[in-house]
Design brief:
This protein has helices spanning 3-44, 51-56, 65-72, 80-85, 224-229, 327-330, 347-367, 371-385, 387-402, 404-413, 420-434, 442-461, 500-527, 531-547, 552-575, 578-589, 597-622; strands at residues 92-96, 100-105, 110-120, 126-130, 135-142, 146-148, 155-159, 163-169, 175-182, 188-194, 209-218, 232-236, 244-245, 253-257, 261-267, 271-281, 283-290, 297-307, 315-324, 483-484, 497-498. The chain contains 17 helices and 21 strands. The chain is elongated.
């Protein structure tokens, strides 16, 4: 940070502090004046009828007359009805369909807890997206004073098998109502915030309605770090096909979105809780904090969302999605782009996953129950598809290796630095004459790279692997462990356990690297002297440390891919006769070769360089 930046930040800080102090002072004075006027009005007003007694008749969750009389002894500026509803007993009601079980509470009229029926936590407990003690839903209103609806006990209204309503009363005829409705065989539910019977109690200068939604997300998976890598807050701008995320963090992270937002998702590795506004939120203040790995929870999510308000506003339509981050399920809500919550990768990588890997994986999974076998078949299919590229890469590398003696002769013929252009030109002529492309071994590997990354993105995000066992791995979506270190002992960056699939994957990578290095050792010894250490030792060690906490299914896939690569390499060696290949290359050198435009430009540059060098020598001789 330079001096000007530091000074700028200090100036901004002073301005913000001064504005905050002045604004707070003005607000305090205004509040005192309002309280004084309301006190005078309350003292002169006739006694209000006991609306609480009216509500109590036939409504669960309503307060008793004893509660009302207790409040009447010390009334607040909000009035006796409000005061009475600040006391009560929390009561719960449950609605459920085939997919989830939702618990509602009269405290704040909120969605208190959500359980997904088809899934369990890693330890076998019911899978709760959040619980009664870890949820809060609040509207901030001025009616006439500022109230937070989460502080009140709502009155439960009409209830059916698929719907429930809660009311917060201002008097016997004025109330705010929440209406909830679940859908059959659907992870989406509806919520309507009805202000049509409450507008007379809302202050004329009511700002936009602020919605506060907070949940504590329990840890659902075996590996805290791996789950935390995929746990964040996501949101979508209206009209966009992409989504935004706050990213991964092990601590506190927040973001203030000042433009319209269509939905906000509290996203975990395999499950999400999403709120959608039919007419969009005006802005969103998003925040999460991360628990310690020793806690049973993973994130504390918080969203402060703004709904536009005018005196004509009667109701707001919200929707909630409580369900898995399964691509095929989220795709059903295609107009909302929920499927973008599954991290399949960008551009061509995401394209490969969406249109190739997922359809094949789902097709195989519909017929084969063992997902270890599914991954094996998927790996073989991918290897068959890229087989021509693999063979071409091997053949190009073999040709380069066989040309090594000829390249050494050129190095001996042009040892001086000033002859670098001549040597390069001679090498390119040799390559072209022999029918060898120097990049022929790299390009096929480069083409395969998106598939490699696509698999890296697919397996940790595939909920189909969650809870599926194979061999010694009890959950292919999380790490496998053959030995856990004693309590309290952990190796930095590696973890507190040994993953056998990661260990075998690293060992197979070492063998592949050793074979490839021996194949190209003659070419790389002079050009890349540090390649041996990097290929043989550094990469396997780094991947062993990195993948020890990753999905066992991912490590298993890479292990299979390396084993198939080893088999292919030995098969290629038996198929390709080096002597015949070299003889064919030498025969090619005898044929006339048409110079390419690039080679002609290279020769022209060489002539210009040579002429310039002679001019410099002549000038030096004259001196």
């Amino acid at each position: 940070m330079n001096k000007n930046t530091l000074i700028g930040l200090l100036v901004i800080g002073v301005i913000l502090f001064g504005f905050s102090w002045y604004n707070n002072k003005q607000y305090t004075e205004k509040l005192r004046e309002q309280q004084r006027q309301d006190s005078i009005a309350l003292a002169n007003a006739p006694a209000l009828p006991s609306a609480v007694d009216t509500l109590a008749a036939g409504q669960s969750g309503a307060l008793t007359p004893a509660d009302s009389s207790a409040q009447a002894a010390a009334p607040s500026l909000l009035g006796s009805v409000y005061d009475a509803q600040l006391k009560g007993t929390e009561e719960f009601h449950t609605l459920e369909n085939e997919l989830f079980r939702i618990t509602f509470s009269n405290k704040g009229g909120r969605i208190a807890a959500v359980e997904l029926k088809d899934y369990k936590k890693y330890n076998g407990d019911p899978l709760m997206l959040f619980t009664e003690t870890g949820s809060r839903f609040n509207l901030n209103l001025f009616a006439p004073e500022q109230i937070n609806t989460a502080d009140f006990y709502f009155a439960k209204q009409a209830v059916s098998d698929t719907s429930i309503a809660y009311r917060l009363y201002a008097d016997s005829t004025s109330y705010l109502e929440y209406r909830y409705a679940i859908r059959p065989d659907n992870y989406m539910m509806d919520m309507k915030v009805d202000l049509s019977h409450f507008k007379g109690k809302i202050a004329p200068n009511q700002p936009d309605v602020q919605v506060g939604w907070n949940i504590v997300a329990p840890q659902q998976e075996k590996g805290f770090d791996n789950e935390n890598n995929y746990t964040t807050i996501a949101y979508k701008y209206p009209g966009e096909t992409s989504i935004e995320e706050l990213g991964m963090s092990t601590g506190l992270k927040e973001e203030d979105v000042t433009t319209k937002v269509q939905w906000v998702a509290f996203k975990q590795q395999f499950f999400s809780s999403i709120v959608v506004a039919q007419d969009n939120f005006s802005s969103a203040d998003l925040k999460f904090n991360t628990f310690k790995p020793t806690d049973s929870n993973i994130k504390d999510f918080s969203a402060s969302l703004v709904l536009p308000y005018t005196p004509a506003t009667a109701e707001y339509n919200l929707q909630f999605y409580f369900g898995p981050n399964k691509f095929s399920v989220l795709k059903k809500y295609d107009d909302l782009e929920f499927q973008k919550l599954v991290p399949l990768g960008w551009w061509i990588i995401g394209w490969i996953n969406r249109y190739v890997v997922i359809p094949v994986f789902d097709f195989l999974g519909s017929y084969i129950a063992n997902f270890g076998i599914v991954i094996l078949i998927l790996t073989v299919l991918i290897k068959l598809i890229i087989f021509p590229l693999t063979y071409k890469s091997y053949l190009s590398t073999a040709k380069m290796r066989l040309l090594k003696p000829d390249i050494d002769k050129l190095n001996e013929k042009y040892p001086k630095k000033e002859d670098a252009m001549k040597k390069q030109q001679a090498m390119m002529q040799l390559y072209k004459a022999a029918g060898v492309n120097p990049m022929g071994g790299c390009l096929p590997l480069l083409i395969q790279f998106p598939i490699l990354i696509a698999m890296f993105r697919f397996f940790p995000a595939s909920i189909e692997l969650r809870g599926k066992s194979f061999l010694w791995a009890d959950d292919l979506s999380s790490y496998d462990s053959i030995w856990t270190f004693p309590d309290g002992f952990s190796i930095p960056f590696y973890g507190d356990h040994i993953s056998l699939f990661a260990l075998l994957m690293a060992l197979s990578l070492y063998i592949v690297s050793k074979i490839n290095y021996s194949q190209s050792a003659g070419m790389s010894n002079q050009q890349m002297p540090g390649m041996k250490f990097m290929m043989l030792y550094l990469m396997p060690i780094l991947l062993l440390v990195w993948f020890n906490n990753y999905s066992a299914g991912l490590c298993y896939y890479y292990l299979l891919a390396n084993i198939i690569t080893i088999g292919q390499t030995y098969a290629f060696r038996s198929m390709v006769d080096d002597k015949k290949l070299h003889a064919q290359m030498m025969e090619n050198t005898k044929k006339p070769v048409k110079k390419s435009k690039w080679q002609m430009r290279l020769e022209e540059m060489q002539r210009q360089q040579e002429a310039l060098r002679k001019q410099q020598q002549q000038r030096g001789g004259r001196r």
